[in-house]
Amino acid sequence: MKKWISLVFLSVSLLLSGCQSAYYGAMEKVGYHKRDIMVDRVQEAKESQEEAQEQFSSALEEMQALLAFDGGDLEDAYNKAKNEYESAQAAADEVGSRIDKVEDVAEALFDEWETEIQEISKASLRRNSTNKLNETQRSYNSLVKGMRRAEAKMPPILTAMKDNMLYLKHNLNAQAIGAIKGEFNSLQSDISSLITEMNKSIAESNKFIEAMEKG
To answer: Coiled-coil annotation: which residues (predicted)?
Structure first.
């Protein structure tokens, strides 16, 4: 049974890999090369981080409003905070997905580049292309490390938000709200740190895109 599952997993992986290769091949035929796709995907990853920044800030604001609750519909305030938490979770998932796509096309681009360098007969051109490849890879590695570093800050924040939402779900009263107020300052600090890290990553993305477009 385990062997069968492994074979299925391998087949699916090969199929997905083949689909990606076919996609890149089809795009290249219409003049849209891996380099272009990479630039677009870095742009999309950057935009997903910007969206996540806004969403985490909104979630923090709604939680702040809930904790500062003073009369009115407590359940309505809770639902708003819960909805913003769920949107923050979706935004975090999107960030991870976009980074995965950047890594996928980068691998394909660098593999192709390395292969084609070997086909250059003139030593000086081969050397120049190798230097450019190495420079691009260094810039890319820095870019992705920054993206992943920012991404890694999101799960602990989401876990804390989820804990608060689950706790309040069955204890929706002023006393329960008071019990989690002590955690708010820490959550606020964590989100501030996340936004700072994302700003660094976004700036790195802009720098990378500019360099790639210059060629």
So the answer is: 35-98
